[in-house]
Each structure stands twice: as C-alpha cells, then as structure tokens.
Write a structure and sequence with these properties.
Elements lengths: L2 E4 L2 E10 L1 E2 L2 E6 L10 E3 L6 H13 L4 E15 L2 E13 L9 E5 L2 E9 L11 H4 L8 E6 L4 E5 L1
Parallel strand pairs: 2-7, 6-10
Antiparallel strand pairs: 1-2, 2-5, 3-4, 4-9, 6-7, 8-9, 10-11
C-alpha cells in the first residue's frame, strides 16, 4: 500500500466507492473512530486505482462491483488520534449489484472487523471527509478536484 511517514505526517493514496442505491448511501465505520467513511482503501504500489477499488470491495465485502467514473479527486488533510494525515483520494461511482440492507452488517478491513450500513441521503452521519455529506446529494457531472483541509478548516472546490 502507498503509505509514507515523514515530518509528522502520514501520506496515503486512497480510493473510495460512492455507492448510492434507492436514495441510500453505503458507508462503513471501524472501532478506531467516531465517524463513518466510504468503502475503499489504500492503493498498492504498481496497482491502478480502479483495480485497487475492486480489490478493496472484494476483500471488505466479498462483492464484485462495476467501478464507474471518477467523481472527486480529493486532497484531504486531517488529524486522527493525534497524527496528521495528507491523503490523496480518488472517489468513484460504483454500481452495487445487491439491494440495500436494513441494519448493520460486517466485513473486514486489514483483518479487523468493520461495520457497514446503508443511510438515507438526507440522514447521513458524521462523515469523513465531511464535505461528502452534502456533495453526494448532487453528484458532479464531471470529475471535480477538491482540497479539504480539516487542519486549517478550509475546503476548496476546483473544477
């Protein structure tokens, strides 16, 4: 996986799945945080982002999916458990083959349990990156570049 620790920051190259079906969005949560995030994970060296996303969803949910187009290219700077992160993320639309479930269901992320849940778009929980909470209500027509800097409390949406 593409992770670099340097000068007090951890750099990640991540892919995320924007899965929306029947006005609900699939999110996940792990025991380390009090927030939800989109399924996906880190890209491996030598792996393209689409392949990485397919692999991550297969690993986490045991599901083969069709990866659509890039919706957002996100530069995400945030702090988690006292550590600063600089993350580059490609967020793709993903066609989900199954109907949304009611309630929580489990998967694995890096061998650790992870909780998944479908949320109505109008009732999304504490979501990271936070701008997605409103952005997913109107998906961009073409890919957008977003700089989300939680450390300096700044979001910049670029074309």
């Amino acid at each position: 996986m593409v992770v670099i620790d340097k000068d007090g920051y951890r750099f990640n190259y991540r892919v995320g799945a924007i899965v929306i079906k029947k006005s609900q969005m699939l999110l996940c949560h792990n025991a380390e945080g009090d927030y939800w995030y989109v399924p996906g994970g880190r890209v491996e060296l030598g792996e393209d982002s689409r392949t990485a996303l397919k692999r991550e969803l297969q690993e986490e949910l045991g599901q083969r999916v069709r990866v659509g187009r890039v919706l957002w290219m996100i530069e995400n700077l945030f702090e988690l458990q006292g550590r600063k992160f600089h993350e580059i993320g490609l967020y793709y639309s993903v066609d989900w083959p199954l109907e949304p479930l009611v309630g929580d269901f489990s998967g694995l992320e890096n061998g650790q349990p992870i909780t998944f849940r479908w949320f109505p778009l109008g009732q999304l929980p504490n979501l990271q990156p936070a701008f997605l909470k409103t952005a997913v209500r109107a998906l961009p027509v073409r890919a957008k570049h977003v700089i989300f800097n939680e450390i300096s409390a700044q979001t910049i949406g670029l074309a």
